[in-house]
Design goal:
The chain is α/β, with parallel strands linked by helices and 174 residues long. Helices cover 23% and strands 30% of the residues.
């Protein structure tokens, strides 16, 4: 069985996902959701996203996509392209007996992976954020909203949010 490619993303109402190498908000509840969704599954991310996290996340294999041939990180796999990263992550998924590979950012990686993904798990943050990195709109001819779970703003959250699952219903237009 080939592991499904799943994008895990958080974006503001204006589609902003990042500012100055980090998230433009703090959502404690969503960090717990991210951990639950990704635990035990290989994660594909760009080098900048990996460096913004600053460490390997326990219980998950990181596959880092970078154009820097000298980049290395003990404990992480390194790939020169999204295609190499997907192949490596699917090998890890098969080894670990899981059926999903998670794509966790950043902007360039999301843009490259979106046409290949079968599911998007989006945290839609109830605010407009300043930032220069955007998540592309999901074409309703390609993506169907399958589930939506609203969360009120918690005591350690900058805003309320909804966790929305989108399933691919058609091939991406060429």
């Amino acid at each position: 069985m080939v592991a499904k490619l799943v994008i895990v993303v958080a974006y503001a109402r204006n589609r902003v996902i990042g500012r100055d190498g980090g998230l433009p908000w703090h959502l404690s509840c969503d960090l717990k959701h991210f951990k639950a969704v990704t635990m035990g599954r290989p994660m594909i991310m760009g080098r900048k996203t990996f460096q913004s996290i600053g460490r390997l996340l326990p219980g998950r294999t990181s596959v880092v996509v970078t154009r820097d041939p000298g980049f290395s990180c003990p404990g992480a796999l390194v790939a020169a392209s999204i295609e190499q990263a997907i192949a490596a992550a699917r090998q890890v998924a098969a080894r670990d007996g899981v059926d999903e590979v998670m794509v966790t950012g950043g902007g360039e990686i999301y843009a490259q992976a979106l046409p290949l993904a079968g599911r998007v798990v989006a945290t839609e943050v109830d605010l407009d954020a300043e930032g220069s990195v955007l998540f592309p709109p999901l074409d309703p001819a390609v993506w169907l909203e399958a589930a939506r779970d609203h969360h009120e703003r918690g005591p350690k959250d900058d805003a309320g949010f909804a966790i929305v699952t989108y399933e691919r219903i058609a091939a991406a237009p060429t």
